[in-house]
Amino acid sequence: MKYSGIGGQAVIEGIMMRNKDNYSVGVRKPNGEIEVTVLKCKRFTVGKKFISLPFIRGIFGFIDSLVLGMKSLTISASYIEDDENVKNADKPRKVSFIERIFGDKAESVVTGIVMVFSMLIAVSLFMLIPYAASLFLRPLAGDTITAILEGLIRFSLFVGYILLISRMEDIKRNFMYHGAEHKCINCIESGMELTVENVKKSSKQHKRCGTSFIFFVMIVSSLVFMLIKFDTLILNLVGRIILMPVIAGISYELIMLAGRSDNKLVSILSKPGMWLQNLTTKEPDDSMIEVAISAVEAVFDWKIYYKENFSNIDTNLS
Hints:
The protein is α+β, with helices and mostly antiparallel strands. It has one domain. The chain is 64% helix and 8% strand. It has 12 helices and 4 strands; from the N terminus they run E-E-E-E-H-H-H-H-H-H-H-H-H-H-H-H. Strands 1-2-3-4 form a 4-stranded antiparallel beta sheet. It starts with 6 loop residues before the first strand and ends in a 9-residue tail after the last helix.
């Protein structure tokens, strides 16, 4: 496996693929056609020495990923909306309250609101609730055992949440597109020609997956909270929120190390996150793989990449 630098995520009926400063959003439209949009990334970590430092870059890289993810979801949703607008062309379109107030900036405002709301839910569900639940166990166990139990509660909540939402039909399809994204990147990084058949043979698990990142966040947070304790309930709750950037920075370095290294110890540490990906990735169908390939080819010349990294492989590429 050769590191390619490509990353991505599943979106609504499609896939986003990012390569350096460009990203593409490929979507299977309701009429069956594949539409691909290519745009430039605006990232915090580019051209700024302090922000690009190890551990610091992970904090801003995480923010970059959230912003890019929301933009990509918005783009993919617009294709579905456009199709609905065509079907209902004869009906007057209702202007929302936010559109009336913010005009052309309404989309950015909605994206910002959704991001903040999502972060609040995530922090409450996976940080504050596990801590509050662990307090009931503190009289029965010491601080170290309580911290471990808090981590187990956090992990159980995450797995339970994934299992719950995976019952929804739209989420099932999203997980299939997630699998197509991974399989496509694995196909490229293993030096196979990027075709539907070769992508189907590739693994749906990848070391640099966001699911693995979340697993590292849960492990790192348990260790950090075990070492850093405060005297009061309020300080412990606030501390968990304040320490989130530190935890994200450490987890980012771990996931990047895992994605670039074939070291046995690193591979062992990556195994639980890879197992967890079985919950968030499903085997895609051929039509989803076609979308993934289209999204990759819009921002990444895999033929040149093969010639530079797999010179010993006869790819028969012109």
